[in-house]
Amino acid sequence: QVQLVESGGGLVEPGGSLRLSCVASGRASRLYAMGWWRQPPGKEREFVAAHRWLGSETSYADSVKGRFTISRDYPKNATFLQMNRLKVEDTAVYFCATVPSQGSGYTNWGQGIQVTVSS
């Protein structure tokens, strides 16, 4: 079992930047992929970005392409989400999640962290 802990959220003005971090403990070396999801107020959880744990493949939601960048640090078993040019509609609880094997889907989730974009 992999435990996930997110950090880096907070309040930022529109146009600002934040960097979210997620550290995985446990069997992180056996992961297939890690990703970020978010749940805006009153809405369903939605996909933001993901990367293969091994390899260079990444994917992004259309709403964040060109503004958000996902990256990782193997020695630290960590994944990061650099969020630039933030918009009010990016306000949400952000979750880190893992895919343990190809085709399994996201089965392990962090506790979530609040990101608020407001002037």
Topology:
Blueprint (H helix, E strand, L loop, with lengths): L2 E5 L2 E3 L5 E8 L7 E7 L6 E7 L5 E3 L7 E6 L4 E6 L8 E8 L8 E2 L3 E5 L2
Parallel strand pairs: 2-11
Antiparallel strand pairs: 1-3, 3-8, 4-5, 4-9, 5-6, 7-8, 9-10, 9-11
What brief labels describe this structure?
119 residues; seven-stranded mixed sheet; four-stranded antiparallel sheet; 11 strands
What would you say this structure looks like, in words?
With about 120 residues, the protein is mainly beta. About 0% of the residues lie in helices and about 50% in strands. It contains no helices and eleven strands. The protein has strands at about 5, 10, 20-25, 35-40, 45-50, 60, 70-75, 80-85, 90-100, 110, 115. The strands form two sheets. Strands 2, 4, 5, 6, 9, 10 and 11 form a seven-stranded mixed sheet that branches. A hairpin with a 6-residue loop joins strand 4 and strand 5 (about 45-50). The model has no long low-confidence stretch (mean pLDDT about 95).
Mean pLDDT: 94
Coarse shape = globular
The biggest sheet, with number of strands, parallel, antiparallel or mixed sense and barrel status, is: 7 strands, mixed
How far the N terminus sits from the C terminus, by CA atoms, comes to 40 Å
H-E order: EEEEEEEEEEE
Helix content: under 10%
Approximately how much beta-strand content do the residues carry?
A: over 45%
Q: What gyration radius follows from the Cα positions, in whole Å?
A: 13 Å
Number of H/I helices: 0
Which class best fits the helix and strand makeup?
A: mainly beta
